[in-house]
Amino acid sequence: MKTIILCGGKGTRLWPLSREHLPKQFIKIFDNKSLFQKSVERAKLFSDEDEIFIVTNNNYKFMVLNELKEISTNIPEKNILLEPSGKNTLPAIYLGIKAIKKIYGDCNVQVLPSDHVIDANNPYVEAFKTGENLANQGLVTFGITPTTSHIGYGYIGIGKAGKSTKEGNEGSHKLFKVNDFKEKPDLETAKKYVREGYLWNSGMFIFNTKIFTETVRDMTPKIYNAFESSDDLAEIYKKIPEISVDYGIIEKSKNVFVVPLNTPWNDLGSFDAIYEIYDKDENENARFGEYISINASKNLVITKRLTALVGVENLAVIDSWDALLIARRGETQKVKEIFKILKDKGDERAITDKTSYRPWGQYTVLEDGERYKIKHIVVLPKKRLSLQMHYHRSEHWIVVKGMAKIVVDGKEMFLRNGESTFIPSGFTHRLENPGKVLLEIMEVQIGEYLKEDDIERFEDDFGREKKKD
Amino acid sequence: MKTIILCGGKGTRLWPLSREHLPKQFIKIFDNKSLFQKSVERAKLFSDEDEIFIVTNNNYKFMVLNELKEISTNIPEKNILLEPSGKNTLPAIYLGIKAIKKIYGDCNVQVLPSDHVIDANNPYVEAFKTGENLANQGLVTFGITPTTSHIGYGYIGIGKAGKSTKEGNEGSHKLFKVNDFKEKPDLETAKKYVREGYLWNSGMFIFNTKIFTETVRDMTPKIYNAFESSDDLAEIYKKIPEISVDYGIIEKSKNVFVVPLNTPWNDLGSFDAIYEIYDKDENENARFGEYISINASKNLVITKRLTALVGVENLAVIDSWDALLIARRGETQKVKEIFKILKDKGDERAITDKTSYRPWGQYTVLEDGERYKIKHIVVLPKKRLSLQMHYHRSEHWIVVKGMAKIVVDGKEMFLRNGESTFIPSGFTHRLENPGKVLLEIMEVQIGEYLKEDDIERFEDDFGREKKKD
Asked: What is the ipTM of this complex?
């Protein structure tokens, strides 16, 4: 089975952990792996690495590549499909299906969101096996057995057995055709759904490419026609509307199977959702990071520094290096309003944290002084920065890990761990990691003007010579 | 009039703003001046700089010197009196009075705490003038007109006019002899005190040295005898008990005047006190630092980074670089328990923040990596660090401000802004600021062992040659 991982989601509801350029699929809150990395590992249960396709966009491409490298997964770069703009899930899936069909012909494809939490446990594996067996008969979706009357999820109605529902048995899973889909309900309705055996709509699917394409052709011809009449993505994406796979085909088709899946699942749609699923201490506090408290209970604390709570309850305390959020639990969906306030006034802290991601690696600003700036730069193995020059600042580079190959004013040299060099303003220079491990350097910039736009590039970020504008 | 500024108080109740080595008199929360600096400026209303004496201890000496320099005050270093240990206010004042008497003979001395907030407005100046005129007749204390029935302050009873109280008129101030002193009362008692015209005990005094010394001799002979029988401070402080000036003489003497002072005053004894006195926005939030909120009210926010509040009220949110406190307002006195927990387990964050103060200036750790450490070092004009050597680390120094004179392996050189040098492990080196402005350098340490104890010093911090142990 092939895989499409949907990895284009923006991060607004988990600010300040997530940012526009660091959406929730890439953040590592709870252990050393991101939700995206975990979705890749789930994909590998059913697909070889070169059968996994990732649909994302140009902003996230290098983060995807870095995160794949971190978990030693070598998905080919050509399998990373870049949408020109976000148009919701149906176009993203169509883009993946079209690419897969072109290589493999018609086949079965599992579609996995990259920003949900689910364990790849035995029930999960069994459900996906069942789904794969059904994929030649119709569209397959997965319905999670509800544990609460959640009002933040969509529900799948499987009808009553033996009535409008075709029921069967395959392996250990009961199989149902879908009866109806319900949007996020109010609490009373949610309770009714849970009583009546509805399932949570998980956003995971298995599609046969042929059935999928034909269904889109019949149900949402605008999408089908746009994708089938051109290979120019920019042109296609200009034509098509934003539309979800649920609204576009799943809710309209009469030929949809739902495989029930009784396992913990969470869409991490807000900090309230995070509090719900994670372990609590004896005072019902869910804690990530260093923490002490006196008489504090029912709090969610995610912190990068020592956090002390005194006499408070029902708070979500989310601490990042450059921003701090304190919200009443139950009102954390309003975090997206905070995000919007920042975004609307052009505040950079809506977009990125102190770390910026680049094709060659990343850098973090440690201190931003009046006439100096300190950066921690990490260069990926075999990557190099563009040949460049600054008019207003000189730079000191000190290697703190790995080995650097540098060119300063045309002269090439190697710097080992502990060695340093000085680049006066006006000198061309290039930094490269020739090695097989990460290169880390401290850069101390000194000058009267230290903004990122004091740079004359002679190559692009891929090392290709660049014409001056 | 001479001045004694009491500057030995420890900071435990305003953690994480204050630390054991950074007590509240030195923190700059609200504007660019510390409470200590403001107390020096009040002192200067009545004293020349060389008439001001500061009683503190060795831990704070260099912070005192730095802060005096910041406000361009040249109190002679000999006027900074160092207590071997903290024994509460009476010994501290005796130490100051004894030093003043030795130089000036008998005279009047104002005693000012360095950790209270009070405006040096007209009523303040008038009250101190009145107090100075009274000082030859008895001990003079200042009583603040209460604005609330505060249960955190001591109260001074001035009795009813014409009864046990001698009343007079001097300038615009009514004068009263003190009737009685009351410790921190419960709320009902506090209300009664306020109704009956009691005043808050401000901790400010004016003493004639002769009357003060005789009163101590009569009321607390242990203190008098210890100080008068020796000039060896270590010996004196070993003998004497901890005792406050209130308990030791003021509450016992029958000859105490109280000058009423109707002006805003606050002892900043907790974050609740800070909330009380500072300006609030339309939602009754008191805010220091960058802040946005949705539906948040009655909070105190003191922050170093952007802080977003959603749907919370009555919180004290105190954010420092390495620790974060969130306490329910009304319970902030429990912060000292947090401090104690940290202190008891030897957590450095009870003692210092990321900045350490030294005789020659200060340094701040910017990043502490596995095999590297980045420090921002500030060297005061005309100061130098000891000649030293490290076995396990090499150091890079980059001058980001000012001019450095350095000696590496016996060779002397000057480094200007933007220049750098490298000190291999095993090389002796010394850093000096020969200039008249601050020297700032970035130090990047690289090595397998980066703790502060990898240091071989050949001189002490005052540049005196040191014998090896």
From this structure: 0.82
